[in-house]
Specification:
The chain is mainly beta and 247 residues long. 5% of the residues lie in helices and 59% in strands. The protein has one domain. The two termini are 27 Å apart.
């Protein structure tokens, strides 16, 4: 029996370890560190940065990212996007030994979208003002949601459990955070967003989802006092879909 013809597939995956913009004091950009993008034909790409230091504001010891895309067999396309950052320090307030953002998309022939999971994503010794945040992630949120519709329906019930979620215009924003154990004041154990006085707002393990696509940002910071800045740490994204046949 002749093998089934391989359908054209438009791969997409990207990652970066750190990026941001400071607007006070002074204006400065943190260019996307260890930024990497997968070619649309698939394959492999990676990036690595060591001993990064930005204006006494942000530093990390090492960061590496990797994206891959390939056919597993005649029926299955696999794409991955991984971002790892180690010994990160933001303004002597946020520190972590290791943060991992990892997305894996499995796309079956004939399916309208891939099944995207975040297994492998994690925080290691995350601290804020010296207080440890033990973050437990609910990986089943994505593992049990094969499509965007499934995820949207699950996210719609998040508010009933005290979590923060938004669904609007074909987009869902939620978090992988199941609970946070810490003695840092102001943190609600089942919410992924909290504020630290005289510093800013945190969002942990935030998922931006739309049809066939997921973006996982492990830390998103909105700093307001005394520094004003927007910063992302360990972000990965993937979708990929079959291309229409050419004439």
């Amino acid at each position: 029996m002749a093998p089934k013809p391989r359908i054209p597939f438009h791969f997409h995956a990207e990652s970066h370890a750190l990026s941001g913009e400071f607007r006070h004091p002074g204006r400065s950009l943190i260019e996307a560190q260890a930024s990497v993008s997968l070619p649309t034909i698939g394959g492999h790409a990676r990036a690595h940065v060591d001993h990064y230091f930005h204006s006494d504001f942000v530093s990390f010891r090492t960061a590496h990212t990797e994206v891959t895309g390939r056919w597993m067999d005649e029926e299955t396309v696999l794409s991955t996007a991984t971002s790892v950052i180690e010994d990160v320090n933001i303004l002597q307030v946020v520190t972590a030994e290791r943060i991992v953002s990892r997305l894996t998309s499995t796309h079956k022939r004939g399916k309208p979208e891939g099944h995207i999971v975040a297994v492998g994503s994690d925080f290691h010794n995350l601290r804020v003002l010296g207080h440890e945040l033990k973050v437990t992630l609910r990986h089943k949120l994505l593992s049990d949601s094969e499509t965007f519709e499934h995820l949207r329906n699950r996210v719609a019930t998040d508010k009933d459990s005290g979590k923060i979620a938004v669904i609007q215009d074909g987009v869902a924003i939620c978090s992988l955070v199941e609970r946070i154990e810490t003695d840092l004041p102001g943190v609600e154990p089942r919410q992924h967003i909290f504020r630290v006085p005289n510093f800013g707002k945190f969002s942990l393990a935030e998922v931006f989802a739309e049809h066939g696509r997921r973006v996982l940002t492990m830390i998103r910071l909105e700093l307001g006092s005394p520094h004003v800045a927007d910063i992302t740490v360990a972000e990965s994204s993937t979708n990929g879909k079959p291309m229409p046949p050419t004439p």
